[in-house]
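Problem 3 from the worked examples.
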Amino acid sequence: MYRLVVDPCARRQGVALALVAAGEQRLAGLGCQRIGALVTDAHDHAVGFWSAAGYTADPTLTRYVKML
């Protein structure tokens, strides 16, 4: 999953978790067996959310980028 944004007025109401669950169900229905989420380590709230949603950091992956 790449972008997950909830309007600040609707946060802490289960909206993000419901969106993730719906995405997981859809992908599972298509035969997906693994879902990845790109999470910035510096965003503690995002790390906490994805951890609470059952996702764990994959120590075998490193993301490479190049700014031009």
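Problem 4, a separate protein:
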Amino acid sequence: MPGKKPKLTKADLLRKMMDVGDLDSETAFKLYAEIFKEIKTALIKGRVVELRGFGTFSIKTRKGRVRARNPRTGEPVAVSNHGVVVFRPGKELRAQAWSVIT
């Protein structure tokens, strides 16, 4: 398929952690799970997660609206205010990403 880009999956990350950290699969999985559990917990508590050199995760409130439509029926649907996770890349990642597209 043209334009389809390869993905980095959880399994890929676990394999890399096992290789670099000389870890068994169980330890790598526990470490992976704890890292992402901490990130999720911090976000849910309203904290900003800043990973220097990579970027910042935060939760922003998205305003509710009535103009949303059910894609199946086309009927208007009311969407209440809700939180969405936002990622802002750090300066280093932004610069590297820019070099990829230019």
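Solution to problem 4. Helices lie at 10-21, 25-44, 91-101. The chain has two domains: 9-47, 48-102.
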